[in-house]
Amino acid sequence: MKRTLGTWNRGARAYPGHRVVEVFGGQQYEQLFLDMTCLAEYRMFSVEEHRLEDYKQTRTGTVVEPPLQQSSSTELPKAGRLASLRGKGIEVHVGSQPPSDENTWTLPVKLISQHSEYFKAACLWNMTGEISLPEQDPIVFGLFVEWMYYKTYETFTLWSSPSIHARCWVLADYLLCNELKAYAMSRLFKDHMNNATLFGSAAISYKDVEYVCSVTAPDSKLREFYMDFVLDHFTDARMLLGNTAEWDKILQNDPQARLKLLEKMRSPSVSYTKSLEDYQKVNEPQGDSRLRMDVGLAGLSIAEKKTDIATAEQTGNNKLSQFSSDTPAFVPNPSPKIHTEQWSVSERKRNQQ
């Protein structure tokens, strides 16, 4: 008998579940709870692990038969990868709109801390169980979440300009995730450097370059790739979309690029575009990510300092309190003499004279 691998047995047969009726404020509310069945190999999985395994199986469209000798989840090859899904979670609200199912994610702390130094620091100091990223795009963040689970993301239904891969790179730079930066750069490099793309176009729009120059540091690898591409294809209208005035506006803000463009005109054989590996390198000594100057991390540093100061003050107060309890009260020696007898009027006059 063939066993179906999966955690929800989706498509095998329907499970009606059971209904629960509760009364609140005199009104009845009915809720339907679905019964979940799973194989013995998955009996120790959490709900998140069940969902991940089911999504991976249905997403790839393949079913793998587990060995008959497997009897526990700890023996599964994927157990190590799923370890990052265990433990507590944290709610991440992305964008400026009020929290909703469209812009809020509940993610395992271990998972996001493993892939993002920003989240690692934020979760370390977070006491509310919530993190807000009001300036980020929920759609782009959703691709980051997809990449964390599957090491890839799909972009067929998303916009083309500014490039979604460039936006993912910028988010990865914000979150201090070098792995996602490298992956997004590889997708970007493939789109523009390989002419045989899915849509038959490898052109770059001035809007792409304008966006990248507005959100990245001057020495960022993303900006370097775009400017190198512009310099090598500046005379080819098929590869650079935009009129002369629009490109001139971009070059006016980059004197170094203008100088290189003049050199390119004098020596057409010079090529500025480098290999993919060069653009995937992490330029930590010179790079200055926008996030490193972000108020959020600055706030974490301030909170850390305040915590250290408060701890030091409390320690000092405890030592002072202990010292006060162990040391007898200070008494002047010798004690001052106190006159208790009343002076007569004659003695006062004599003393005044």
Description:
The structure is a single chain. This protein is mainly alpha-helical and 353 residues long. The protein has a three-stranded mixed β-sheet with strand order 4-3-5. A two-stranded antiparallel sheet has the order 1-2. The protein has a two-stranded parallel ribbon with strand order 6-7. Strand 1 and strand 2 form a beta hairpin. Helix 4 runs parallel beside helix 13 and helix 5 crosses helix 6. InterPro entries: SKP1/BTB/POZ_sf. It comes from Fusarium sp. (strain FN080326). This is BTB domain-containing protein.
What can be said about this structure in brief?
With 353 residues, the protein is mainly α. It has helices at 47-60, 79-82, 109-115, 117-125, 138-150, 164-175, 178-193, 206-215, 221-232, 244-252, 255-266, 276-280, 295-326, 345-352, and strands at residues 18-24, 27-33, 89-94, 104-108, 130-133, 204-205, 240-241.
Keywords:
mainly alpha; three-stranded mixed beta sheet; disordered N terminus; 46% helix; 7 strands; 353 residues
The general outline is elongated
Taking all residues together, what is the mean pLDDT? Answer: 72
Question: Would you count the extended β strands for me?
Answer: 7
The structure class reads: mainly alpha
Sketch the topology as an H/E string, one letter per element.
Answer: EEHHEEHHEHHHEHHEHHHHH
Distance between the termini: 126 Å
Low-confidence stretches: 1-16, 60-77, 196-200, 285-309, 319-351
Radius of gyration: 33 Å
Strand order, biggest sheet?
A: 4-3-5
